[in-house]
Design goal:
Length: about 190
């Protein structure tokens, strides 16, 4: 059965500082480029029927440094969650005005709901399952966490149960016919 390989982009200034980065198109830091290059040997020689990337430069550059820049098709469903008014702010800053706010429970004013994020993740899953082979995805923390949660049948807030580091490789697949997480945050 097919597997879906998830690669989170390398480190950016805002991923380092904990700022919510959705629509802001930040480049990778030099350290982020170095760790993105380290993904290449883990994927080398593996055949993929489909390679997709978020259109954001941090994901596209990670795909390029991992050796898939020429094959990665941009997919707007892989872009990060739109944080609306919370773009560029940390959770700590947001909680000053909204005590107890949680990105996996509460909406972002002017941004995207968790239900909308889940709909995008579901479309990516459907596309991957239709390929008839393995799929490789280059994208972002919250989107990939949402996708993993949806893969195993969790509700839209389920992605919050997974932590995902920068420039990591995770694999979704099957145990018999049941969708499972084969590896996470490698």
């Amino acid at each position: 059965m097919s597997e879906v390989v998830l690669v989170r982009h390398g480190e950016t200034e805002w991923s380092r500082s904990g700022q919510h980065t959705g629509v802001t198109d930040l480049p990778l830091l030099p350290e982020g480029e170095a760790t993105a290059r380290e993904v290449a040997p883990r994927l080398a020689g593996r055949p993929f029927a489909l390679v997709l990337s978020s259109p954001m430069q941090r994901a596209r550059r990670t795909a390029e440094l991992a050796g898939f820049g020429d094959r990665a098709q941009p997919d707007p469903d892989l872009r990060e969650r739109n944080y609306g008014e919370y773009e560029g702010r940390t959770t700590k800053e947001i909680r000053v005005e909204r005590p107890g706010w949680d990105v996996w429970r509460d909406d972002c004013p002017g941004g995207e709901t968790l239900d909308q994020l889940a709909e995008r993740a579901d479309r990516v899953i459907d596309r991957a399952l239709a390929t008839g082979g393995d799929t490789l995805l280059f994208a972002h923390s919250h989107l990939l966490r949402e996708l993993a949660g949806r893969w195993i049948g969790l509700p839209p807030d389920g992605g919050g149960k997974f932590r995902l580091g920068t420039a990591t490789v995770s694999v979704l697949g099957f145990e018999r016919e049941r969708r499972v997480i084969l590896s996470w945050n490698a």
